[in-house]
Amino acid sequence: MPIGLKRVYEPAAPDDGTRILVDRLWPRGVSKAKANIDLWLKDISPSDDLRKRFHARPESWDEFRAAYAAELKGETAQVAAAELRALMREGPVTLLYAAKDERHNNAAALKEWLDQRD
């Protein structure tokens, strides 16, 4: 099943399927009602330390992806990944993120990681 990516600030669409927020922090200025989020998978998001390092150095995209992939091997992240994969088998899934950069964000890195394993 294909995985969609969308900024959480964009309106929900019928073809989004299950909408999953994959950020560790709740997005600023978005009410829970307006976000139309089905699941918030904080445990699959990058650690606070990794998130802060990447935001300080956005040019370190390759380093971020490698460090995030290493974090995704952890037990908590693996449980969250199993939950995500189960939802993907049920139908369309859209990973939601708050970052402004649509190509370089944790949801894009997560999608790439999932695509390489499924």
Tertiary shape: globular
Helical segment count: 5
Mean pLDDT: 93
Q: Tell me the span between the first and last alpha carbons.
A: 10 Å
> What is the radius of gyration?
13 Å
The count of DSSP E runs of length 2 or more, i.e. the number of strands, is: 4
One letter per element, helices H and strands E, the order comes to EEHEHHHEH
Low-confidence stretches: none
- Beta-strand content bin: 5-15%
Helix content: 40-55%
Largest sheet: 4 strands, parallel
How would you name the oligomeric state of the polypeptide chains in this document? single chain
Give structural notes.
The protein is an alpha/beta fold and 118 residues long. It is globular, with a radius of gyration of 13 Å. A 4-stranded parallel β-sheet has the order 1-4-2-3, covered by helices on one side. It has 5 helices and 4 strands; from the N terminus they run ββαβαααβα. Helix content is 44%, strand content 14%. The mean pLDDT is 93. Strand 2 (18-21), helix 1 (32-35) and strand 3 (39-40) form a beta-alpha-beta unit.
Layout of secondary structure:
Blueprint: E1 3-7, E2 18-21, H1 32-35, E3 39-40, H2 48-56, H3 61-71, H4 75-90, E4 93-97, H5 106-117
Parallel strand pairs: 1-4, 2-3, 2-4
Brief characterization of the structure:
By secondary structure, the chain is of the alpha/beta class. 44% of the residues lie in helices and 14% in strands. It has helices spanning 32-35, 48-56, 61-71, 75-90, 106-117, and strands spanning 3-7, 18-21, 39-40, 93-97.
